[in-house]
Amino acid sequence: MTIFKAFLKVLNKNKFIVIMYTAILVFFGVFNMQTSDNSIGYISTKPDILIINNDENKGLTKDLINYIEKNSNKVEIKDDETSINDALFYRDVNYIIYIPSNFRKDFLEGNNPQIEIKKTGDYQSSLANMLLERYLKVASAYNEIIKDENLIIKKIHDTLKDKTEVELTSSINKNALDKTAYYYNFANYSILAGCVYIICIILSSFNNNMIRKRTIISSTNNKVFNRRLLLANSLFALTLWLFYVILSFILLGEVMFSISGLLYILNSLVFSICALTLAFLIGNISNNKNALNGIVNVIALGSSFLCGAFVPTEYLPELVLKIAHILPSYYFINTNNLLTKIEKFNLTSLKPVLINISIILAFSTIFIILTNIISKRKNKLS
Hints:
Layout: H1 2-13, H2 15-35, E1 48-53, H3 59-70, E2 73-74, H4 81-89, E3 95-99, H5 103-108, E4 116-119, H6 123-145, H7 149-160, H8 174-206, H9 209-217, H10 222-252, H11 259-285, H12 292-307, H13 318-324, H14 328-338, H15 347-381
Parallel strand pairs: 1-2, 1-3
Antiparallel strand pairs: 3-4
Helix pairs in contact: 1-10, 2-8, 2-10, 6-7, 8-10, 8-11, 8-12, 8-14, 10-11, 11-14, 11-15, 12-14, 14-15
């Protein structure tokens, strides 16, 4: 009980540090909510097309132009090549169709007239090319068996009127999960910085030379003392974790009530335990309060940058990611990113998540073992 009271007293003196790291997380969390797009549906787009018709505007030629214009955005540009090329360069138009003179007559006679085109080469120009080719292929097929132009046009309409409905088969809200991953990835910094700084401050007070000597000569066993101190620090770490979880429910809403949300919470809990044991190890290695800011920057900021908390992992160099594998933050952030892609939850899909969590727990175990070894040696030296 004495240890716990002393712990609370030191914690109360440093409560503003906890508030500061929490404020940072809230700021970036809210900023992400404001800048992220809320839409998750499929939106069909139309290419910008310019049609230059050198044929008579009637019959098959007129029908081709009507079909293209119906399925695209018609663009009006000054009729000279310089203006047309400028419009293409500046993406004012995606696709330009040059219908040659006598196109209708040559087509109906089976002479296969060539339509010249100019395009930007992007996905919208590809869509425009598909529209043109679709019409011409259908028209050519009917022209081989039907000689009446009006009947050909009618058959073309009957064939092209069928449209494919686009339906999203994914059951996950990708946008909401991306927000959640961003929030918990950034929490890597807040949890590490908060735990390492506060717990190291607390331990440095308990590891004061006079207090350590009094502890050694007391009836309290060193292992029991460390266990009680670890338990008191665990209470702080869990409180900090619980606050960030509650904050995620406020900022992220409905997604946190899903299975994915539960897994994000579980992953952050395991990582908070790891941050606690790491902080406990560092606190037993160094008693220098003045060096704490440097330690926090190296551990919290360093691991956050290396492992993808601030910069998405797909933008990080391969060498950096290889180095990041030696840090528990990598497996925490990797799990957050994996959860944005899982649609069905089963043993197969969750296997990488369980492996990452197991690795983080292994790190925690190693940190506890090292802490006991260092603490024991320090007591002998004292």
